[in-house]
Design a protein that fits this description.
alpha/beta, Hypothetical protein af1432, 14 helices, elongated, disordered C terminus, binds fe (ii) ion
């Protein structure tokens, strides 16, 4: 297997108040393909992180101004820096210190005097993890931009994706879905129609009703979307939402004609908020409808056996209550990011 770090020159920041310790580590790491920078105290460390953007920080616990635990916890609680790998190094080998380091979010913990081979191996392993995380993040960002690009093509659907993320996570939370499904719904709101990138604009933006042939092409978007996202293991729970958000409970939907509870619950949640938001907003082929009219239409569709009545009724109660935003699991879910 080839080493993914071979062509990289990972950046390491050494933080220690003793210059001789820094020089020792620098000399020890020099033969490897790393770019090295150093800082003598906590304040300097935070400043250098911003300037140098390291992949990994070797962080001594006992440093002046801001101690190592605090530096670690600040870096790990910041969206911009939480991906940086941190190995805490302490001369105190007691359990309490190690626990504090782990609680502060350190990726590894070593006590002095440390075994050089062990340190080298741990650095290499964490840098590899960081490299794969970075690659994954890049791929997810590209797919997310693709989905938002599809939304931006049509001025009528502006904001549709982010509303869907908010409605569906709040609704999923009321229904008692677990955190992993709520995260999937948050991403699903943005990504559900990413497959529309493969649909010609003449069909996607057509102001009038679609012909049978055009409808057939349009109905391929869930499968195209699934194929775009399939290589990413991190989107495993989002893919059923993408593939099945146009199924109907009576089996008349697409692409698989699934019936009832064979349609994944997260897809049943997203489709209700998707229909609601589409009916409420202006589209090339229709004006925005009043909420009463939207509910009349959706009531009829539930009677026809299209949408899950239990989820629909929970959604109606939620949206008619003034404070539905309180149902957002915002504390544990970063709703600014489609990927958690
Ligand atoms: Fe769709």
């Amino acid at each position: 297997m080839t080493d993914p770090l071979e062509d990289q020159k990972p950046k390491i920041l050494i933080v220690d108040d003793m210059i001789q310790n820094i020089e020792l580590l620098r000399a020890f790491l020099q033969p490897m393909n790393y770019t090295i920078e150093s800082a003598l105290d906590g304040e300097d460390a935070l400043k250098k992180v911003g300037q140098f953007e390291p992949d990994l920080v070797l962080l001594d616990v006992m440093i002046p101004k801001i101690d190592g635990h605090e530096v670690c916890s600040r870096l790990k609680s910041n969206e911009e820096t939480r991906h940086i790998m941190i190995i805490m190094i302490s001369s105190l080998s007691d359990l309490e210190n190690e626990v504090m380091g782990i609680e502060a979010g350190a990726d590894d913990y070593l006590s002095k005097p440390f075994n050089q081979l062990l340190l080298r191996t741990r650095i290499k392993s964490l840098l590899k993890t960081k490299y794969y995380n970075d690659q994954l993040e890049k791929a997810e960002t590209v797919i997310s931009s693709l989905a938002l690009g599809v939304e931006a093509k049509d001025p009528y659907t502006e904001g549709h994706c982010s509303r869907l993320s908010r409605y569906s996570t709040a609704l999923g939370n009321r229904l008692g879905l677990g955190m992993s499904l709520l995260k999937a719904l948050n991403s699903g709101g943005v990504l559900h129609d990413v497959g529309k990138v493969g649909i010609p604009d003449a069909i996607l933006l057509k102001p009038g009703p679609l012909t049978d042939e055009e409808r057939k092409i349009m109905s391929k978007h869930p499968v195209i979307g699934e194929n775009i996202c399939k290589p990413l293991h991190s989107l495993k729970l989002v893919i059923p939402i993408i593939r099945h958000h146009h199924e109907k409970l009576d089996g008349s939907g697409y692409p698989d004609g699934l019936m009832g509870e064979d349609i994944p619950i997260a897809a049943r949640v997203l489709q209700i908020v998707d229909i609601y938001d589409s009916l409420m907003t202006k589209r090339p082929y229709k004006p925005p409808f009043s909420q009463d009219k939207v509910f009349n239409i959706m009531d009829e569709e539930v009677k026809k056996g299209w949408w899950d009545p239990r989820i629909y009724s929970e959604f109606k109660t939620m949206i008619q209550g003034k404070n539905w935003h309180k149902d957002l699991p915002a504390k544990s879910l970063n709703l600014n990011s489609p990927f958690i």
